[in-house]
Amino acid sequence: MSTRHFLSLLDFSSDEHRALIAHAIDVKQKLKQGIEHTPLKGKLLAMIFEKSSTRTRVSFEAGMYQLGGHAIFMSPRDSHLGRGEPIEDSARVISSMVDGILIRTFGHDRIEKLAQNSRVPVINGLSDLLHPCQLLADMQTWFEQRGDIAGASVAWIGDGNNMCHSYINAALKFGFDLRIACPPGHQPAAELVQSGGGSVTLHDSAEAAAKDADLIVTDVWASMGQEEEQQQREATFAAYQVNQSVMSQADSEALFMHCLPAHRGEEVTADVLDSSQSVIWQEAENRLHAQKALLEFLLRPGL
Ligand code: CP
Ligand code: NVA
Fold first, then answer.
1. Residue 137: its pLDDT value, please?
2. CATH code 3.20.20.70 for 134-283
3. Which of 168, 202, 209, 278 could form an SS bridge with 256, CB 3.0 to 4.6 Å?
4. Are 132 and 124 in contact (CB under 8 A)?
5. Is it the case that residue 178 has pLDDT exceeding 70?
6. pLDDT at position 286 over 60
7. Residues 263-288, mean pLDDT to the nearest whole number
8. pLDDT value of residue 197
9. What is the DSSP code (8-state) at residue 69?
10. CATH of domain 9-131+287-299
């Protein structure tokens, strides 16, 4: 059987996604109850971080440890990845020694090249194009709060970035409607929007996208690698801030999510981020549980 990778949510079927979320909820309960669950004894995960991370690094490293395995952190600063060794060669070498590889990098093509040359599963820990691991945690959080997300209405407000793209993929896989509002010039990739068919719609304002939504989601205005555009983006995105006025357009029971880190007073006001509708801490914690389910799925096929 060919090696399964997780470069995008599209790599798994809808049924696999739902099974994974159910398993994530189960491993979370086991951990809370102090029940040992170590199916990955002796397994190794190499973690390549070419961009910064708090949540992704800690959750994968803690997750591997809790599952009985071990994680190896690698950065370009102290490996040959930063000195020009081709990613294809690195893939051959690293995958001959470990059971899985996580990578966070810039160009998505770099992750694809790594996967093409790896004998073991490769996990996308964020690229400029996609952030699928975050969506597993977001979906788990919704399922815990409200049950299945099929048929719900989700509003994405802000930048048409990697998170927005993964929300488009999630709309397809989980069967929810996605209403997107981004400033001109910062829309998500057109081919991705088209791939969403009727379930993905573009709106002219944050208020229009938020209308009657069950979930409001946003992310930073300048992603990693766009730091120099920060000031200009603050002006461009000003009308796309998630504030109480935008939240008031949504369903009164609507939830708010943000992958974090957040910039209070920029893409979201502090009163929304810290409100009772906000589930950001549960969402962040679920990175650990959802990715443990993912690691079991990929590193112990047949589960
Ligand atoms: N949300 C997220 O991926 O956080 P980190 O950048 O801290 O990993
Ligand atoms: N869009 C953000 C997500 C960070 C988790 C970035 O790529 O920097």
1. 99
2. no
3. 278
4. yes
5. yes
6. yes
7. 98
8. 86
9. -
10. 3.40.50.1370
- The full set of domain ranges for the chain reads 9-131+287-299, 134-283
HSE value, Cβ hemisphere, 13 Å, CA-based, for 104: 22
Q: Mind listing the pLDDT tens digit for each residue in 213-263? A: 999 999 999 999 999 999 999 999 999 999 999 999 999 999 999 999 999
Number of neighbouring beta carbons within 10 Å of residue 100 = 27
Cβ–Cβ under 8 Å, residues 177 and 155: no
- 107 CA distance to ligand 2 middle (Å): 13
Q: Which of 47, 53, 131 to mutate to test the pocket of ligand 1 (most atoms within 8 A of CB)?
A: 53
Cα 258 from Cα 138, distance rounded (Å): 9
Mean pLDDT of 103-127: 98
Backbone φ and ψ of 144, nearest 5°: -65, -40
Instruction: Please work out whether the CB of residue 56 comes within 6 Å of at least one atom of ligand 1.
Output: yes
The reply to whether domains 9-131+287-299 and 134-283 share a CATH topology is yes
130, 162 Cβ separation under 8 angstroms: yes
pLDDT in tens, 13-27: 999 999 999 999 999
User: Is it the case that residue 53 has pLDDT exceeding 80?
Assistant: yes
Centre of ligand 1 from the C-alpha of residue 198, in Å: 30
User: Within 6 Å (CB) of ligand 2, which residues are found?
Assistant: 126, 131, 161-163, 219-220, 223-224, 259
Ligand 2: residue of 161, 217, 218, 267 to mutate (most ligand atoms within 8 A of CB) is 161
Helix segments in the chain, DSSP class H: 14-32, 55-66, 87-95, 108-116, 132-146, 162-174, 190-195, 206-210, 230-236, 244-247, 270-273, 280-299
Atom of ligand 1 nearest to the CA of 260: 1
Mean pLDDT over 95-121 rounds to 98
Percent of the chain scoring above 70 in pLDDT: 99
